[in-house]
Design brief:
Elements: H1 14-35, H2 42-49, H3 53-81, H4 83-106, H5 110-120, H6 127-137, H7 140-151, H8 156-171, H9 173-194, H10 208-216, H11 219-250, H12 254-282, H13 284-303, H14 310-337, H15 343-368, H16 377-396
Helix pairs in contact: 1-4, 1-6, 1-7, 1-8, 1-9, 2-3, 3-4, 3-5, 3-6, 3-10, 3-11, 3-15, 4-5, 4-6, 4-9, 6-7, 6-15, 7-12, 7-14, 8-9, 8-12, 11-12, 11-14, 11-15, 11-16, 12-13, 12-14, 13-14, 13-16, 15-16
Length: 404
């Protein structure tokens, strides 16, 4: 007999739905702020530490890698321990590393920034906690919309891009990291006090390693991983590297580049619940196809470096919208295709692949800066090719029944 899992719903209290969805979204947002606190200050570290393009790219990308791979474990653990406990624990663990990044930066130590940035990646694993948690609160016909709303918590990257450089100007470099660390701890306390697991949720007793291995054997895991690596990976890559890109290409200050990056992230955040809601109405396949078509077209236009500020800004806004649409569409697809007792573990793997999709582009763009024309053109060309390949995959792959 199949186990009752974190994704099955029984009697649902509407008030509990709204509160827990809001809490999960807020926790996701604050954790993503902490996860992305290095990226908006990348140009500062470059100037102060004399970093090369490759060193700068590695510094920005390290938390992305750890936060991505860690989702495999956090998703499986959520099936066992529940979202309330996992959100609380992960936020508490992340807080000291958010502060220690400030210490390493104040000491002008590139090595310690890399090491602490590695552990800061823990903050990025909360995505794989929220999906099964939210899934358990909503019936299948509403999960696309609910997960889209939860996914808007990735707007924490927008908060980081907009506020982190400004906080440094207002309060100072080290106090900014104290503020972020305290915010993570406050978020953890609120999760423990206000969150509740869904009424029908029962912990999965299956050992974590076999559960992950089982998810890896499912075709749905790899189909969704490929698509999410393009959509969410593209979003993560631009959210973390866009301040550097705008600074290098258009010569904007760190604060102005952060503002434009925040706009990019906010548009993607708004588009994600739209993608989820559309998936409930017209099906996730169509939503993902629209997303990938738009992403391919806009990546080509970005590579041509339209002039600032209206033309380039509109281009990035459109690209953000299509990427956000795709992130909502893919996870609506996951909710339909994943077996009920494995949503957490499948979410962990798919989320990991999405994050890994955001790890490599900054490295490629940093390593190839000035080596091709236009600058950063190779990285954008790869995004275009991946989007076209994903579109072909989406259109040609037959609909699959729910895996069991």
């Amino acid at each position: 007999m199949a186990e009752v899992s974190a994704t099955e719903t029984t009697t649902i209290a509407p008030r509990g739905q709204a509160r827990n969805l809001a809490m999960a979204t807020a926790a996701f947002a604050i954790s993503f702020w902490g996860w992305n606190e290095i990226g908006p200050l990348g140009a500062r570290y470059t100037d102060e530490l004399g970093l090369s393009s490759t060193q700068k790219s590695l510094l920005v990308a390290i938390p992305v890698l750890v936060g991505s791979l860690g989702r495999i474990v956090s998703g499986a653990l959520t099936d066992r321990y529940g979202g309330r406990l996992m959100f609380t624990v992960l936020l508490v663990i992340s807080a000291p590393f958010a502060f220690l990044v400030g210490i390493a930066g104040a000491e002008h130590s590139y090595l310690w920034l890399l090491i602490i940035g590695f552990f800061l990646g823990i903050a990025g694993t909360t995505f794989a906690v929220g999906v099964p948690f939210v899934n358990a609160w909503f019936p299948p016909e509403r999960r696309g919309s609910a997960l889209g709303i939860f996914g808007a918590g990735m707007g924490g990257t927008a908060l980081s891009a907009f506020f982190t450089p400004r906080f440094v100007g207002w309060f100072g470099y080290l106090p900014t990291h104290v503020i972020i660390a305290v915010a993570l701890l406050v978020g953890a306390a609120l999760c423990w006090l206000l969150m509740r697991n869904a009424p029908g949720w029962q912990p999965s007793r299956q050992p974590v390693v076999p559960k992950i291995a089982g998810a890896l054997r499912l075709g749905v895991t790899w189909r969704m991983s490929f698509l999410y690596a393009i959509a969410f990976g593209g979003f993560v890559a631009f959210s973390t590297y866009l301040p550097t890109y705008i600074h290098d290409i258009y010569d904007f200050s760190l604060t102005k580049a952060g503002t434009r990056t925040a706009v990019f992230a906010i548009v993607a955040v708004i588009a994600r619940p739209i993608g989820g809601a559309l998936a409930d109405r017209i099906g996730p396949r169509r939503v993902v196809a629209i997303s990938l078509t738009g992403t391919a077209v806009m990546a080509v236009i970005v590579a041509l470096q339209p002039p600032p500020d209206l033309a380039s800004g509109s281009t990035f806004v459109a690209l953000a919208f299509f990427l956000g649409l795709g992130t909502g569409g893919v996870f609506a697809w996951v909710a339909l295709q994943a077996p009920p007792d494995r949503v957490g573990s499948i979410t962990g793997v798919v989320g990991a692949m999405g994050g890994i999709g955001g790890f490599f582009p900054p490295l490629v763009m940093g390593a190839t800066y000035h080596l091709v024309f236009p600058d950063y053109g190779l990285g954008l060309a790869l995004l275009t090719l991946l989007a076209v390949g994903g579109l072909a995959f989406t259109l040609l792959t037959k609909s699959q029944p729910r895996a069991t």
